[in-house]
Amino acid sequence: MANDDSIKAEGIVIDALPGANFKVQLPNGYVVTAYMAGKVYKSRTRVVVGDKVTVVLSPYDLSHGRIIWRGDARKPTNPSGNGEN
Fold first, then answer.
1. Which helix (H) or strand (E) holds 33?
2. Beta-strand (E) ranges in the chain?
C-alpha cells in the first residue's frame, strides 16, 4: 500500500486494549481500533486514555488504523496565545 492511499485522521484515545492496541474516537463519532506504529512503539512513547493522536487508516478497512503521532489533549493551553504555559 502506498502512502498516497492512506487516510489521516485525528482522534482521542478512549480505551487501552491489551497488546498496545487502542480504541480511538474520531471527530465524526466513529470508533476505530488502532495499534502503535513501529517508530512510535520503538521510541517508547506512552499513549494513555485522553491523548490526542493522529491515525492513518487504510481505504480498504476503515475500522482499523495505525497511530503515527501522539499529542497531549490533557495539557491545558494558554488562552493569551503568547507561547507560555
1. strand 31-36
2. 7-17, 21-25, 31-36, 52-57, 64-71
85/81 Cα distance (integer angstroms): 9
With cell 489533549, the residue in question is 73
- Of 17, 69, 21, the residue nearest 43 (C-alpha): 69
pTM beyond 0.85: no
For 31-85, write each residue's pLDDT tens digit: 999 999 888 888 888 888 999 999 999 899 999 999 999 886 556 555 565 656 5
Check if the beta carbon of residue 12 is closer than 8 Å to that of residue 27: no
Report the DSSP pairing between strands 52-57 and 31-36. unpaired
